[in-house]
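Hey L., structure's done. Input below.
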Amino acid sequence: MDQAIHELLDSDIPLIPLLGNYVIDSGGKRLRPMVLLAGTRMFGYEGDRHTVLAAVIEFIHTATLMHDDVVDAAEQRRTRPTANALWGAQAPVLVGDFLFARSFQAMVADGDIRVLDILATATRELAEGEVLQLQNTHDPEVDEANYLRVVTAKTATLFEAAARLAAVINSRSGEEEEAMAAYGLNLGVAFQLIDDALDYSATAEAWGKQLGNDLEEGKPTLPTIHALAHADHQGRDAIRRALEEEGVALLDPVRTAIESTGAIEYTVQAARERVKAAKDALAGLPETEERRALESLADFVVTRDF
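Output:
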């Protein structure tokens, strides 16, 4: 898969592979392609389409990260400077566009209209989720249902697509396809829930970026949504002011409010419930080493500290 990634990054414009390789080789977990690769092997696949499509999944994910970092003016990701911190805002946006373009070229070359439909739909939903998140920025009135709508679109949809493709590539039944899709969707929601919990509870060394990043960007997430509903007046006031305008300057009182209301535990429990649903979705699928790997991946999502 990594070989496919670097082949797809090839370009006569030197800045494209330079910047693209910098971001892709920066230590990402490769969880989305893992789901596709393990899923195809669970079903006994012996072809080679899955490696290129796994690279496509990682390309789509990486392109959105590059664009997100520009939108958020982020300076650090995975303990390293972001591409926009090194090259400015314009180059990462344009190279991100190149990654999207190469992704769709690879999908067309695959030749399966279902694959193209699944990934095109996921890309559209992902973009809609990012816009909805932007629309919710600095709004302390965002509720849990609205938040979960954002999480499902901007994160879970690509996990769902990766898992669904594993069944489609193998021409499995509709029931098996939906089971894989349910696994991916719930895994993706759990992943983002833990991400949002870690933004207030991780150590800076393990997290690889500034704590309270969501607060600084005015993004309401489940820890702040839960704390707003259960904190005392002082805690609610700190969260509102932080989300509306003051950001990470109020991180300490916001974290106090989050801790006093059990908001981290609430968020982690919500993630555990999603992980259980993900593992339950695999129950009727082939009992192989790869299925056990997918179950272990789900467990990792809620126990990680980075």
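The chain has a mean pLDDT of 95. The first helix runs from residue 2 to 8.

-- N.
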